[in-house]
Amino acid sequence: MPSVRRRLQFRRYRLPFRGPVRTAHGVWTHREGLLVRLEDAAGGVGWGECAPLPGWTAETVDAADAALRELGEWVDEDALDRLPSGLAALRGALAATRETPALPPEPAALGVAALLPAGAEAPARLQALAEAGFRVFKWKVGVGDAADELGLLDELCGRLPPGGRLRLDANGAWERRLAERWLERCAERPVDFVEQPVAVAPGAGERERRRADDLLQGLAAAFPTPLALDESLAGDGDVERWVAAGWPGFFVLKLALHAAPAATLALLARARARVVFSSALETRVGAAQVLRRAWTWSGERHALGFGVWPLFADRALDGPVAVPFLRREDVAALDLEAAWNALA
Ligand code: MG
Q1: Do residues 144 and 15 both lie within one domain?
Q2: Are 79 and 120 in a shared domain?
Q3: Distance between Cα 226 and ligand 1 center (Å)
Q4: Statement: residue 1 has pLDDT above 50
Q5: Quick check: helix, strand or coil at residue 35?
Q6: How far is it, in rounded angstroms, from Cα 12 to Cα 28?
Q7: What is the whole-number distance in angstroms between the Cα of residue 248 and the centre of ligand 1?
Q8: Closest residue by Cα to residue 304 from 289, 319, 292, 291
Q9: Residue of 37, 135, 140, 293 marked catalytic
């Protein structure tokens, strides 16, 4: 049987953020990536987004752009499956064009974790967000002086609404001793998890990587507060490795960066893993895919790491503006064609 040829189009973007975004890799003013559109002979259209995160993996938008040019406008299934494994975000984008999960009728809404700024502005911001209805708050640590940040932890706990919880994200900024100090401090406090207390630089050698893995497992075993992996899951095969190692903590999953989202989630579901679906600062096109997968997730529910919008200067690229609960109908209503048209 001849394989079905479909029309593949893509648009590259360089989108300014509404304001500077502080990340683990510095302050960013814009986001780069590609939207892809695949149309079949019957006129059915699928959407995908490739937005590798600089500093997380070696994948680049230039490499994805070149691979798409090489594929050309008319493609068959085999060609899409033959892309190199290093282009994980592009492979994930092309998978999304072909297998968008239907949005199930339930749940009606999913909780969203609010983002707190690093440093001394966090307590006042937490209070405002609590008044807006948020119950889970994510705070970036490992940014300023450790003693100052440890002092702020109690102030934040004191301002939590009833039932409120904190998530701390160190983005790998700590050494073992400092991580231990924080985890001792978190033990008696309403902290859901401490994310990525330590990490290795991308491209680090196998020995360094194994040392960091052992340290994370050791910390997870020694303290009652769960740990979460984020940076540790960025590379091809990382999720598989941590599942095989019996990781007891959370998986903060930037699913938009993964080559085979459906298979990755099936593996995590079989392992009964605790998964937090998280934004990679993608547009609504990539986010719509991830949110649909979050809706179909069969495991425990944890507040989504999608408290990022409004994010872009052009609202047509944003997802639903950060609210304590993201409603099913808001996800269903996301207009992906409008995002595509905004790049014309
Ligand atoms: Mg993180």
Answers
A1: no
A2: no
A3: 14
A4: no
A5: strand
A6: 18
A7: 17
A8: 291
A9: 140
pLDDT in tens, 169-206: 999 999 999 999 999 999 999 999 999 999 998 778 89
The pTM (predicted TM-score) of the whole model is: 0.96
CATH of the domain at 161: 3.20.20.120
Residue 255: φ, ψ to 5°: -60, -25
Q: What is the residue range of 135's domain? A: 109-337
Look up residue 3 and give its amino acid: S
Domain count along the chain: 2
Question: What separation in Å is there between the alpha carbon of 231 and the centre of ligand 1?
Answer: 7
d(CA 275, CA 245): 16
Q: How far is the CA of 282 from the centre of ligand 1 (A)?
A: 15
The reply to whether 204 and 114 lie within a common domain is: yes
CA–CA dist 25, 14 (Å, integer): 18
- How confident is the model at residue 202, as a pLDDT? 72
Q: How far, in Å, CA of 126 to CA of 148, rounded? A: 17
Report the run of H or E that residue 294 belongs to, with start and end.
Answer: helix 284-296
The CATH number assigned to the domain holding 91 equals 3.30.390.10
> Distance (Å, rounded) from C-alpha 129 to C-alpha 229?
25
H helix runs in 223-272, sequence order: 238-244, 261-270
* Average pLDDT score, the chain: 95
Q: Choosing from 6, 31, 138, 254, which is the catalytic residue?
A: 254
pLDDT tens for each residue of 77-95: 889 888 998 999 999 999 9
Residue 257 has pLDDT above 50, yes or no: yes
Distance CA 100, CA 97 (A): 7
24 has pLDDT over 80: no
Rounded to whole angstroms, the Cα distance separating 162 from 109 reads 20
Distance 169 CA to ligand 1 centre (A): 6
Catalytic site residue 138? no
One domain, residues 114 and 86: no
